[in-house]
From TrEMBL:
<feature type="domain" description="Glycoside hydrolase family 65 C-terminal">
    <location>
        <begin position="724"/>
        <end position="782"/>
    </location>
</feature>
<dbReference type="InterPro" id="IPR011013">
    <property type="entry name" value="Gal_mutarotase_sf_dom"/>
</dbReference>
<dbReference type="InterPro" id="IPR005195">
    <property type="entry name" value="Glyco_hydro_65_M"/>
</dbReference>
<keyword id="KW-0328">Glycosyltransferase</keyword>
<dbReference type="InterPro" id="IPR005196">
    <property type="entry name" value="Glyco_hydro_65_N"/>
</dbReference>
<feature type="domain" description="Glycoside hydrolase family 65 central catalytic">
    <location>
        <begin position="317"/>
        <end position="712"/>
    </location>
</feature>
<keyword id="KW-0378">Hydrolase</keyword>
<dbReference type="InterPro" id="IPR017045">
    <property type="entry name" value="Malt_Pase/Glycosyl_Hdrlase"/>
</dbReference>
<comment type="similarity">
    <text>Belongs to the glycosyl hydrolase 65 family.</text>
</comment>
<dbReference type="Pfam" id="PF03632">
    <property type="entry name" value="Glyco_hydro_65m"/>
</dbReference>
<dbReference type="GO" id="GO:0016787">
    <property type="term" value="F:hydrolase activity"/>
</dbReference>
<dbReference type="InterPro" id="IPR012341">
    <property type="entry name" value="6hp_glycosidase-like_sf"/>
</dbReference>
<keyword id="KW-0808">Transferase</keyword>
<keyword id="KW-0326">Glycosidase</keyword>
<dbReference type="InterPro" id="IPR005194">
    <property type="entry name" value="Glyco_hydro_65_C"/>
</dbReference>
<feature type="domain" description="Glycoside hydrolase family 65 N-terminal">
    <location>
        <begin position="8"/>
        <end position="263"/>
    </location>
</feature>
<dbReference type="InterPro" id="IPR037018">
    <property type="entry name" value="GH65_N"/>
</dbReference>
Length: 805
């Protein structure tokens, strides 16, 4: 690894699919895995291209029962570029002797490069450099370039340039029993001599996808004399370009590609658009330069400097690049949510979960227009969420745990346990807390941006409908004189039901109930913020009565939160579960993160034990500052003593297997103020989790968006201690020894800020360009108002060291 480069110096078949995911290139509209363009789909190589919203549903007959699944479809492979020498078999990594090999990903511009020197079976030595990008300027554009030098031979070379529509979804071994065919062929065609194009259609959702490719060859900078030969079938089109190469001389091949779908705006249909656009594209170098300049602009807003921690520095930037590859300004022009596993694999079938909660904080304070657009993904699915609530006997809007094309519940009902090979029921749809996350996301977006128009036109309606849902799923227990919620799950997916219970669901998940108390208190504030006419209109249209507002107020004071042994109980009855023999399992298994699978494979029910997959009750300390949480608890009439956080975090930390890498982010966050050294350890685990594939095989199926973005948020929120309250941007820097020299840009309510911590001093500079006042920033009790172009400094108190273990 280098400053801005992830590099692999040897080809290792067993790691290739992981590297493909990590070196994928995208622009927030589409993304393509870093697969070598000359390789077909196999157990080693997996070409994959995915676009936001490219979903399709298929039926699988499973044990006689039809199962309906929605997948983010692996789109036609635009990469295909193969080299044939003297008419022989195309070069692959496994049919030549590799003399040199280097596969790199340049973080600055998400540029993928492979440099090879190989000897073929006839003893010919050839040098090949391949570079590729997916344009951050023109969302439909991608480019691939080869530079070829025959070292000890001259002769005839052929390049096969193809568009392959025969793709299936099959990278996730667990899903292979399910239907993976999603594309039907439509038609190939050419546009003039140089351009081949292919149109396909998703089988059920009727999305048309078209790619077009223009391939050119240059000798020493001049267009080469090339014979072109065309082969086309309905699902595949290729052009073979034949030309002479000379020993020691450079030949360049460039393949410029366009990709359109029928979801796009401003087109007549995708094939025509793809063909027209690609014909106009400039050459590779010009397109690449424009692409790099767009990334430079993004880095100006999103870079994070952490000079004292080189590895963390590199990985933070790597995560910035990946987050922007999936969520960019291009994303904002489409109907897109945040797929939990990005756009470079098929895990979780491209579905949208609650992980947005970890993604938006970074975007809110840099590129809030992207969060705004992603929140609209939810708004557009409000009708479906209302219908889901109604069908389940509730009011308001009930968003699904897993969301895809139209916002219906996409969570599967059975799931394969790879350890036991058995299909097991999946109750995870009972994670209704996703609705609390959506509410929270809208509110935090509003706090960071002051975008009252968004609240007025969309946000308030979403929030009111969610508050209403919670009020209807909750019931009043007169014995306790408290509101309770039964039949749901918290974020910890190991607990779906009580041991031995016939019905899934738990009573009074503390995380959910506390979020609901907060929602019930916040929803009326949202109404107060709206212009009176809009407030009246919305209340009338949604029929929000005074009585309903009264109920919300009552819930904000009387939701039930279970406790035991001085800590928050994850759910009612948690205290009665059995303790797990952690020492035994740690000794017996090399990795116990997925304790659920281990226990089930042993014939035991994880529901019986005090074992959590991830932060659950502990989430509360992550999402709210201590003052905020104290006021929620005190309003509820519960004691919030100064040690509750420490006790609760410690209790669950000892009982959590961190089977979701999100859990490392959460624990790193909540421990920042309590145990800085331990917090840093977990931060590093989270930073390393994808690049080192800590879960042993999950990252090749797609990067973890929540974790990547979560680490960026950790630095700003938990370490620099950024929060927004009452229109003031506050900082509470911690871990100063690690953080010394940290610097980044933020956008707060329209104004760009440069924030830095150096020598126990925090500096905030307000850019003059685009300044929007009043701008108030604070540390502790000290709040200062900044004008355009002015800065301020805050002295920071000494801190416990984070360098300790
Ligand atoms: C986690 C969920 C998360 C999902 C998608 C699961 O393993 O338990 O909290 O939403 O992955 O990332």
């Amino acid at each position: 690894m280098y400053d801005f480069t992830i590099a692999y110096d040897r080809f290792e078949p067993a790691s290739e699919q992981l590297r493909e995911a990590l070196t994928s290139t995208g622009n927030g509209y589409f993304s393509t895995r870093g697969t070598a363009e000359w390789e077909d789909m196999s157990d080693v190589h997996y070409p994959g291209t995915y676009a936001h919203g490219g979903f399709n549903r298929e039926t699988t007959i499973f044990g006689g029962i039809p199962i309906w699944n929605e997948d983010l479809v692996n789109l036609p492979n635009w990469l295909v570029l193969k080299l044939r020498i003297e008419g022989e078999e195309a070069i692959r990594l496994d049919n030549v002797e590799l003399l040199d090999y280097r596969h790199t990903y340049d973080i600055r511009s998400a540029l993928v490069q492979r440099e090879l020197r190989f000897r073929d079976h006839a003893g010919r030595v050839t040098r090949l450099r391949s570079r590729r990008f997916v344009s951050m300027v023109h969302s439909h554009q991608a480019g691939l370039e080869w530079t070829l030098i025959p070292e000890n031979w001259s002769g005839r070379a052929e390049v096969v340039s193809a568009l392959d529509g025969r793709m299936t979804n099959r990278i996730v071994a667990r899903y292979r029993g399910l239907e993976g065919r999603h594309l039907d062929p439509v038609s190939p065609r050419t546009f003039g001599d140089e351009v081949i194009a292919l149109k396909v259609q998703t089988r059920q959702s009727d999305i048309y996808i078209a790619d077009a490719a223009r391939t050119r060859v240059f000798h020493d900078g001049e267009p080469a004399d090339v014979d072109r030969d065309l082969y086309q079938k309905e699902d595949y089109i290729q052009q073979v370009l034949a030309f002479d190469v000379e020993q020691g001389h450079q030949t360049r091949v460039e393949k410029m590609v366009s990709l359109f779908t029928s979801h796009d705006n401003a087109i007549t249909e995708p094939l025509t658009a793809a063909g027209r656009h690609v014909q106009r594209y400039p050459d590779f170098a010009t397109a690449l330069a424009a692409h790099e300049s767009a990334w430079a602009e993004l880095w100006d807003v999103c870079d994070v400097q952490l000079p004292r921690e080189p590895r963390a520095q590199l990985l933070l930037r790597f995560h910035v690049a990946h987050v922007l590859q999936v969520c960019s300004r291009h994303t904002a022009r489409h109907d897109a949510g945040v797929p939990a596993r990005g756009l470079n694999g098929e895990a979780y079938r491209g579905h949208v979960f609650w992980d947005e909660l970890y993604v938006y904080p970074f975007l809110n304070l840099r590129l809030p227009e992207i969060t705004r657009a992603l929140l609209l993904y939810r708004y557009r699915r409000l009708t479906e969420a209302r219908a889901a609530a109604c069908e389940a006997g509730y009011r308001g809007a009930m968003f699904p745990w897993q969301s895809g094309s139209d916002g219906t519940e996409e969570t599967q009902t059975i799931h394969l346990n790879p350890l036991s090979g058995r299909w097991e029921p999946d109750e995870s749809r009972n994670q209704r807390h996703v609705n609390a996350a959506i509410f929270y996301n809208v509110w935090r977006y509003y706090q960071a941006t002051d975008d009252l128009e968004f609240l007025r036109d969309y946000g308030a309606e979403l929030m009111l409908e969610i508050a209403r849902f919670w009020a209807s799923i909750a019931h009043y227990n007169p014995d306790r004189q408290r509101y309770e919620i039964h039949g749901v799950m918290g974020p910890d997916e190991f607990h779906e039901r009580y041991p031995g219970a016939r019905q899934p669901g738990l009573r009074n998940n503390a995380y959910t109930n506390t979020m609901v108390a907060w929602i019930a208190a916040t929803a009326p504030q949202v109404l107060d913020l709206l212009p009176p006419s809009r407030c009246a209109a919305l209340r009338a249209r949604l029929d929000v009565t005074d009585e309903e507002l009264h109920t919300w107020d009552d819930m904000s004071r009387r939701m039930y939160i279970p406790f035991h042994d001085g800590v928050i109980s994850q759910f009612e009855g948690y205290a009665d579960l059995e303790e797990l023999d952690w020492d035994h399992y740690r000794a017996a298994y090399p990795n116990i993160q997925r304790m659920d699978r281990i226990l089930r494979a042993e014939g035991k029910d994880p529901n019986r034990y005090k074992v959590s997959k991830q932060a659950d009750a502990v989430m509360l300390f992550f999402l709210f500052g201590h003052d905020e949480l104290r006021s929620i608890f005190e309003r509820l009439g519960y004691r919030y003593d100064s040690d509750l956080a420490r006790r609760t975090i410690d209790y669950y930390d000892r009982r959590t297997s961190h089977g979701s890498t999100l859990s490392f982010v959460t624990y790193a966050g909540v421990l920042a103020g309590l145990d800085p050294a331990s917090s840093w350890d977990r931060f590093m685990v989270a930073l390393n989790s994808d690049i080192c594939d800590v879960q042993g095989g999950t990252t090749k199926e797609g990067i973890h968006m929540g974790v990547m973005s979560g680490t960026l948020d950790l630095l700003q929120r938990s370490y620099v201690g950024t929060s927004v309250a009452d229109g003031v941007l506050r900082f509470e820097p911690r871990l100063l020894d690690r953080l010394d020299g940290v610097a980044f840009t933020m956008r707060f309510r329209g104004t760009s800020l440069r924030v830095g911590v150096k020598d126990d001093e925090l500096t905030v500079l307000a850019e003059a360009e685009g300044f929007r006042g009043p701008l108030r920033v604070g540390v502790g009790d000290e709040v200062r108002e900044l004008g355009p172009g002015s800065d301020c400094r805050f002295a920071l108190a000494a801190q416990p060291s984070a360098v300790g273990r």
